[in-house]
Specification:
The chain is α+β, with helices and mostly antiparallel strands. It has helices at residues 2-37, 65-81, 89-95, 107-122, 132-138, 140-146, 158-166, 194-207, 324-338, 340-349, 367-372; strands at residues 40-48, 51-59, 103-104, 174-176, 179-181, 212-219, 222-227, 235-240, 248-254, 258-264, 269-272, 275-278, 293-300, 353-358, 363-365, 373-375. A hairpin with a 4-residue loop joins strand 14 (353-358) and strand 15 (363-365). The structure holds flavin-adenine dinucleotide and magnesium ion. Magnesium ion (MG) binds next to strand 10 and helix 9.
C-alpha cells in the first residue's frame, strides 16, 4: 500500500513544477493581455457647428483620437454642411437655386437629402430642409442675442412671412442622377439635422478604430453612445429640464449604440411682450411651432430606422448607409412641430422612441421610451 502512494507522490512531485510553471505563464500572459486591453478615458470639450462638443472615449491606446474627431467635425461643417460659410457643398447648392443646370451632389449629400425628404413626407411637411429663407427672415439668433431689447417691431410681419414661405417647400426640390434642382430663392438649412449627421460621421470613424472600445459624444443636443464602458455598465444620458436651467428632467439608460437628439424652445428664443418666439418653425404657418410642447427627445437604438427593405437605420437611398443620427435629429425637430400625439406616430414609423414635454409641464412618451427613461424625483 505504501509503495504506490510513495510512487504517486513522487510522480506528482515531479509533475507539479512543470504544471505550475505553465499555469503561472498562462496567468501572467492573461494578466498582461487584460492589462493591455484595459481601456482608459480620453476626453475633450470643444466647439463646432456653433455649439459645444464633448467627447468621452474609452481607448486601449491614446493616439490623438479626440483631436481627429474634432478635425472631422470642422471639416464636415466647412466642406459640406454649413449654409453660412461660402465654399461648403450646401452653400454651393443654395447658390444654384433657379439654375436649370442644378448642382452636383456628393453621394453622401444625396443620401442625407433623400433621408430628410422621407422625414418631410412622413411628417406631412412638419420637417422641411428647404426652410432656409424663412429661418433667415426670423433670424432668431440675432433676436435671441438682442434679448429684452427686441421689441415687437423686430419680428417679421405676415406679408414678409408669406413671401418667405413661397421660397420654401420640399416638394419643389428635385434630386436626379446625382444632381439637385431648386427653384429661385430656395435655400437649404441643415440646422435641424447637421448635428445628427455629425454623430453618424463620428460613428463611422469609431468603427474603423479597434483601439476605441466605447464612447459617448455630444454635439450640442445630439448624442451618440457606442460600444461599452470599461466597467460594462450602461451609458447614462441626462435629459435637460426645459424650464429649469442647469437641472435634469431625468436620465436615459442606454446599452450599446444609441442616437439621442433633443429639440426645445429654450435655447434660441426671445420673449416679446410675454410671448416666446423660438427657432423651430412650422413650415405650414411660417411661425414658430405652437404644438403645446417645449421639448422633445428622440432616441434611436439598435433596430431603429425607417421600416422597409433597406433595414434598420439605413437611408432610403443607400445600401447600408447608416443615418440613425440624422434621423434622431430630424425626428426631434419634426415631432416638436407635430405635437405629442402625431409626433409619437411619426417616431413609431421610424422605430424610434420619443419623450414629449408639454408647455404645461406634462410628460408623455412612447412605450419603448418608458424602458429607457427614469424621471428625476423632483421633475418637472
Ligand atoms: P433642431 O430642432 O435640431 O433644429 C432647429 C433648426 O433647424 C433651426 O434653428 C432652423 O435652422 C432649422 N429649422 C427650423 N424649423 C425647421 C423645420 N420645421 N424643419 C427643418 N428645419 C427647421 N449656430 C451658430 O450660432 N453659429 C454658427 O456658426 C452655426 N453653424 C452651424 C453649422 C452647422 C453645420 C450646423 C448643423 C449648425 C450650426 N449652428 C450654428 C446651429 C444652427 O444654427 C441651429 O441653431 C442648430 O443646429 C439648432 O439645433 P437644435 O438641436 O437646437 O434644434
Ligand atoms: Mg433636430
Amino acid at each position: 500500500m505504501k509503495g504506490p502512494q510513495k510512487n504517486s507522490k513522487t510522480f506528482l512531485g515531479s509533475l507539479w513544477p512543470g504544471v505550475f510553471f505553465r499555469l503561472s505563464l498562462a496567468l501572467l500572459f492573461a494578466l498582461l493581455l487584460t492589462g493591455c486591453a484595459r481601456s482608459r478615458e480620453s476626453s475633450r470639450v470643444d466647439t463646432a457647428m456653433g455649439t459645444l462638443v464633448s467627447q468621452t472615449l474609452y481607448v486601449t491606446r491614446e493616439q490623438g483620437q479626440t483631436r481627429e474627431i474634432q478635425a472631422l467635425l470642422e471639416n464636415l461643417e466647412t466642406q459640406e454642411l454649413s449654409w453660412r460659410l461660402a465654399g461648403s457643398q450646401t452653400a454651393r447648392i443654395n447658390e444654384s437655386a433657379g439654375d436649370a443646370q442644378g448642382a452636383p451632389l456628393s453621394p453622401e449629400m444625396e443620401r442625407w437629402l433623400r433621408a430628410l425628404l422621407q422625414v418631410s413626407e412622413e411628417s406631412g411637411g412638419a420637417f422641411d430642409v428647404t426652410v432656409g429663407s424663412l429661418v433667415q427672415l426670423w433670424n432668431l439668433d440675432e433676436l435671441a442675442a438682442a434679448g429684452e431689447k427686441a421689441g415687437s417691431d423686430s419680428l417679421p410681419g405676415p406679408e414678409e412671412i408669406r413671401e418667405a414661405l413661397k421660397e420654401c417647400g420640399f416638394e419643389k426640390l428635385r434630386l436626379e442622377q446625382g444632381r439637385i434642382y431648386m427653384p429661385q430663392g430656395m435655400r437649404l438649412d441643415l440646422g435641424a439635422a447637421g448635428k445628427g449627421i455629425a454623430c453618424d460621421r463620428i460613428r463611422a470613424y469609431l468603427g474603423g478604430r479597434e483601439e476605441i472600445t466605447g464612447a459617448v459624444v455630444s454635439v450640442g443636443g445630439s448624442i451618440l453612445t457606442y460600444g461599452e464602458k470599461p466597467d460594462h455598465g450602461a451609458f447614462k444620458v441626462a435629459v435637460r429640464h426645459p424650464r429649469r436651467e442647469g437641472e435634469y428632467l431625468g436620465i436615459l439608460t442606454l446599452e450599446g449604440e444609441w442616437y439621442v437628439s433633443t429639440s426645445g424652445d429654450y435655447e434660441r428664443y426671445v420673449e416679446v411682450e410675454g410671448k416666446r418666439w423660438h427657432h423651430i418653425l412650422d413650415p405650414h404657418t411660417g411661425y414658430p411651432a405652437d404644438s403645446g410642447l417645449c421639448s422633445v427627445t428622440v432616441a434611436l437604438g439598435p433596430g431603429g430606422g425607417p421600416e422597409g427593405e433597406n433595414g434598420a437605420g439605413t437611408s432610403p437611398a443607400g445600401e447600408g448607409a447608416d443615418c440613425r443620427g440624422l434621423l434622431a435629429d430630424a425626428l426631434s425637430t419634426a415631432c416638436f412641430v407635430l405635437g405629442a400625439e402625431e409626433g409619437a406616430r411619426l417616431a413609431e414609423a421610424f422605430r424610434a422612441e420619443a419623450l414629449f414635454v408639454g408647455t404645461d409641464g406634462s410628460i408623455s412618451m412612447t412605450p419603448g421610451m418608458e424602458l429607457l427613461f427614469a424621471a428625476e424625483p423632483e421633475s418637472p
